[in-house]
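Archive entry. Fields below.
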Amino acid sequence: MSDRGYPEAVADEFPVPPTEFTDREERPIEIRPYESTEDGYEALVEMYDAFDPADRAQGIPPGGETRIREWLDAILGDDCLNVIAWCGDEVAGHATLVPDGDAYELAIFVHQEYQRAGIGTHLIRGLLGHGQAEGIRKVWLTVERWNRAAVSLYKKIGFETSDAESFELEMGLRLNPDADADADADADADADPDTDPEENGGER
Amino acid sequence: MKVLCGIGGSDDSFRALDRTVERAAVADDDLTVAVVENPDSSIDPAEIARRAESAVEEAGIDAEVRLIEGDPGSRLVELAETEGFEEIVLGGGHTSPMGKITIGSIAEFVLLNAKTSVTLVR
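PREDICTED_STRUCTURE:
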């Protein structure tokens, strides 16, 4: 949709996957763009099949293997961007960008066994780095307002609230300048090097 | 049962209409379809009302289709209270390409403010 709000400033550069790190539980984690292999696909299905339904958000991931496969087929398409956090052969987490009009919708899931270990931050930064490198301009997401861990992660990344009127918060991030705004953005940056001090004014 | 189905022209509101009309035919509900002014819909209320009337006709039931002006959520709640409706039926939300469900602003208002039961059709 074109009426969503995004920050004026373009986000900082994010690391482009593949990247590696050790999580807070001393597990080696590798962040890689999704490779469309049968083993990779099945590992992803397995992660979602074992996903705690209590961590579902607005209907996703769906329950049951059949629905999981249907959903994955839709969001692993060629026009989508997907990044996986691997722990050996096991999928620890998955983040995706799905096109919606002139922007991309973001979602991220970390399996319960791998939560609170710093994987989400690396995974979302990896996805945004992948998106930035692919030239994606605008990203939006919705998050349930009670999900404080997620909301604070998104804010830390640079997302700003664009709609606080609904049950869910809507947030936006600008990954790359608009094609026709390149010149303007440069001029603005020279004239006003500071980011707007009120850029988070909408979040209360 | 005395049922009020509110529709504003979104895809999910037409799904709610079809399901409610179908159900009314089976359950012999006393159905009223209220066409509200949804600011997010680009379809003209008169056109929405025409679609509602043809759905009602097709199902062979006797239901009234009314155009409701003003704020959709509060008018639906008010109508339900003043005219003794037992249930309000609305569309169950928009699904993004990602598969995430978002409930519309009209449904949010009605859910939080109605004294009757509210059904969201998925």
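CURATOR_NOTE: Residues 2-91+110-121 of chain B form a domain with the Rossmann fold fold (CATH 3.40.50.620).
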